[in-house]
Structures are given as C-alpha cells and as structure tokens.
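---------- Forwarded message ----------

FYI, see the Cadherin domain-containing protein record below. Original note from H. follows.
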Amino acid sequence: MFFSLSSAFVFLCLVNISSQSTDDGIPPELTVNLATVQLAEREDARVRLGAGPVVTCVDADGDAVRAYVSSVQPTSGCGMQCLQLEPVTGNPSDFKLMFKPTNGFATTPSYTLTIGCTDDAETPVEKTMGVVIVSNTPPTFNPNSPPY
C-alpha cells in the first residue's frame, strides 16, 4: 500500500499598519481679508477679485492647509461655477478668489460665499463673505429730452 503525502505550504504574512497623527488637535485659523468684493457686470474673462490674498488659512500645528468655497447662495446664476479659491504662488497659507463668468452671471446681483479652511485632520473652520455684481447698464438716449 502506497501512501502519498502531499505537502502544502502555508504562507502567513502578518502586516501591522499603523499611522501616527502629528496633528496636535488644533484646528486651523481662517481669516477672510475682504468682507465684500465688487465685480463689474461687464467682466467676461477670468479675473482675480480683490487685491492681495482674500483668504488666509493658517494651522498652528504647522500642518498643510487648504481653503475652498464650501457653498454659494443663491444657487441661481453661476454660483460655484464662477467663484473659486486658488492658492497664491509662494505662500501656501494665502488664497485668491477667482471669478470665471458663465452664462447668466449678471442675473444675480450678489452672492454669499461660505469659505472653508482645513488641515484635513480637524473639523474645518468656515466664514462667510459677499460678492456684489455692480450693474454696468449702458446709457440710454431719450430724443424727447430738452437740449442742454
């Protein structure tokens, strides 16, 4: 009688993956440098709103931060499609507000933006700011008005 022994290899791999948070539990600080910016209705190209950084987002722990537009009210008009935050070159804590017009941007006279700031470890901090669309209505000619 022949017995056949088959051997089996069992490969057991134990992997312990752990991560250690370097965040000290301090949420970032958000500064909105402009409460309201004005935008001329005639703008039809991508433009920066306000001079200097509009938003500054700093984390006391030294963690990397990002700022973003959380919401735009009213939702009619161009809203989130038109208004975006971008980092300022050379300073990762400063952000500029960019406007990119789309169809219908001039139909809404003002927007309220909720700006968020996060280090992706703590709860985001949020503040609001306004954007006002300044009407650029062309002059009209009235042939019945008296000459001056």
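H. also flagged this: Residues 29-134 form a domain with the Immunoglobulin-like fold (CATH 2.60.40.60).
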